Structure formats: structure tokens, C-alpha cells
Amino acid sequence: VYSSGAEAPFTLPNLPPGEHLIFALAGRGKGVLETLEDPYMLRFTPLALGVATVTVEAGVTRGGVEIPLTVDLGPTSSEAEVERILVDFGELPPDPLTRDPVTDDPLPMPMGLLMPILDTGGRGFLFTAVDARYNFDDYTSPLETLLPRAGHPGLPPELQLTPRLVGLAGRRTFKGADPPGISTAITVATDSRSRMAGDDVWLDLPRARIPAPPAAPAAPDAVGADLEGVITWGEPERLTTFQRENLLYVVRLGYLTPPPASPAPGYTIGNGRSHPLWDLYVPHGHTTIELPTIPEGGPDWPPQLRNPSPSTGQPTATFAYDAETLEIELNACVLGAFGKSYSYDEDFHVADVNLHASHLSQDSYLVRWRHLPEPE
Q: Which of 238, 227, 254, 370 is nearest to 309 (CA)?
């Protein structure tokens, strides 16, 4: 549909063997230099979408793959193929770490993104826009967005695609880093007017308690209290009955390495890169866990709780993390959405967290783990 006449090659390394969907979203971007300092400040106008199916074989490097941009998302798109949806977007959830200096009440998350998607029903999501207009002074509600209708001739007919609206609320960036503290809401796009505003749309953040996080506002490499084997948090506030009954916590322990340097001096591209070590799944009603005890000399000894790539002392690292620094990531997930069955006690799989979620909220912070075994 659209072509600049120039090739734009890219590679996708380390894909597992099997059949993969690859999509390309093309459009016009404005404010690219500002985005280097704040990724929430991109003005993007989608124009076209393309989808291709690629088969990956073990040990085989594929050559070029064409992704025809066959879905028109521009101003000339056909109403028979593309639906225009007005979205009431806003009233973002409160941030427990950002408070009014007078009342001490938590202030709303300041940044928001609207991301319409096509749900492939288990093979991932196809984004049709990344809309950051909420973050600009000229923002007005509602936001208009486009989603291809079912049976669009430019999309693979074998895919059962369901249009959805994804909203993201987050904190302000720091030197280009996208800080922790994000709430994501997913709704079904069912008609020409959709609501993504109000207390029942968003999920408040889980609140870190033990070990204590660093005092706010904190730089992305600020470290809180020592981790002594117990993690405690407070559940999100303002939960509906459905949210409370279908809530699952995922507590992740990992380590960070510095983010890539940005072309803008003194800035980074995103936050520190997170590397998972342990994932702990906790059903609703529980907000305290003890770390597993691993017998010394057993098959999983020593326990992998250390930063194997410390970056302290690196003169080029904007943010630095030593061997004792670990990240605690608290995730609250509301599952059982969109008519999908969910039971933590029956047929639960890790993949269900993303596939069955209607709400996700996440916060993370750094702590000190002083019980390092000697590396082998």
C-alpha cells in the first residue's frame, strides 16, 4: 500500500524453531529527537500494516522475507475494511510513589498510551498504532483509532483475529529510561465508541513493603533495603469483585544490566535491561512469600541469586549495578478475561498470564542480597 522506495532491513535473532507471525507497522513519526529523551513523546500516525508467516528451522538462517503492507490504515482507508473507533481515554490510576505535596494523596500516573491490537488467539498480538496523544498539551478526548474489520482481505484468512484496545499508564521517564510502575488494561473493541477511563478500567499497582524500596523519587539504580528471604507487598486498591477473585501475583527476582546509551548525551534507550532468575506464582489472598530454601550440595546448588554481570566501575554506564543488587518485580494480573477459562488450581500454565489477562500492573525496585554463594 505504501512504499518509500527504499529497503528497511532488520533481523530477528534467536527465534525458536517453528512457525512465527511477523508484522510490520508503517507510518509517519514526529518528534523523534524528543523521543530519545522521553519515549512517551512520540507522535506516530499509522498508515499501513502487513503480516507474514515465517517458518524457522533449527540451525538455519533465513534470508529476506517480504511483508506486504496490505492493510490501509491511512486517511483513504475503506470503511468497509477498517472501523473507526472513538476511545474515551484517561483517568489513569494513582501512583503510590507520587503524592500531592499539600494533601499527600497519590497523584494519577502522568503518562498514557493507547495501543489498539489484533488478538491472534494465542499467537501474539498485532499492533495497529502506538498513540501517545494523551501526553501532549493539545490532548482532547475522545481519541480516534482505526482497527481492521473481521475478514479484512489484507490479513491472513486462517487467523481468527479479535480487535482489542490496550491502555498503558506509566511514570515519567528519567534520562530516557522508562521507569518501573506500569498499569495495563485490555478491553474488547465492540463498537464505534469505547471507554478506557475510570476506576474499574485500570488496576492499581501492588505496593512494595518488605524489603523496603528506596525512597521516592529514586534514580533507576537506587537500591532499597536488604532482602532477608521474605517479600511482602500490599494488594492493589479499588479492586472489583471480579478482579479480586481472579487475581494472580507473579513475583520475579532478577538482575539488571545497563541500558544502551542514547544518541542524546547523558540519556539512555530505555531502563536497565532485566534478566530473570526466579519466578514465583502466588494466588490471590496471599501477599507474603518466603524464598525457597535450597539444600546445599543439591542439584540446584548454588541458588542462582546474584548479578553475574556487575556494571559498577564501568565509566560508560549511565546506571550501575553490583553483584549484590537484585531486582524485585511485583506483578498483579487479573486473569479469566474475555470468556477464557482460568483456574490457578487446574490446568494452569505460565503462558496463561499474558493470554488470559484483562489487567496487569507492575512495579519493581532494587534490593541488596548479601547471601551470595561463591560462584563456581
A: 254
CA distances from 89 to 66, 265, 335 (A): 35, 34, 22
Question: Among candidates 73, 58, 171, 174, which has minimal Cα distance to 116?
Answer: 73
Taking alpha carbons only, the member of 288, 282, 259, 260 closest to residue 272 is 259
Determine how β-strand 111-119 pairs with β-strand 125-127. Answer: antiparallel
d(CA 236, CA 190) in angstroms, rounded, equals 28
Amino acid of residue 79: E
Amino acid sitting at position 40: Y
Residue 291 contacts residue 230 (beta carbons within 8 Å): yes
Quick one: which of 95, 239, 182 has its CA closest to 361?
A: 182
Global pTM value:
0.86
Report the C-alpha gap between 282 and 286 in whole angstroms.
7
The three three-digit cell numbers of residue 223, written as one number: 537500591
**158-191 burial: b if 16+ Cβ within 10 Å, else e:** ebebebbbbbbbbbbbbbbbbbbbbbbbbbebee
Digit-by-digit pLDDT tens for the chain (376 residues) are 334 445 566 777 777 888 888 888 988 888 777 887 888 888 899 999 998 888 888 877 777 778 888 899 988 888 889 999 999 998 899 988 888 888 888 889 999 999 999 888 777 788 999 999 999 998 998 999 999 988 888 888 888 888 889 999 998 888 778 788 999 998 877 677 788 888 788 999 999 999 999 988 788 889 999 999 899 999 998 888 888 888 999 999 999 998 888 887 778 888 888 999 999 999 888 999 999 887 777 777 777 888 988 888 777 777 889 999 999 999 999 987 777 777 777 767 776 677 778 899 999 999 999 876 555 5
Q: Please give the Cα distance from 274 to 256 (Å, whole number).
A: 5
Rounded Cα distance, 291 and 289, in Å? 6
Residue 142 burial (C-beta neighbours within 10 Å; 0-12, 13-18, 19+): middle
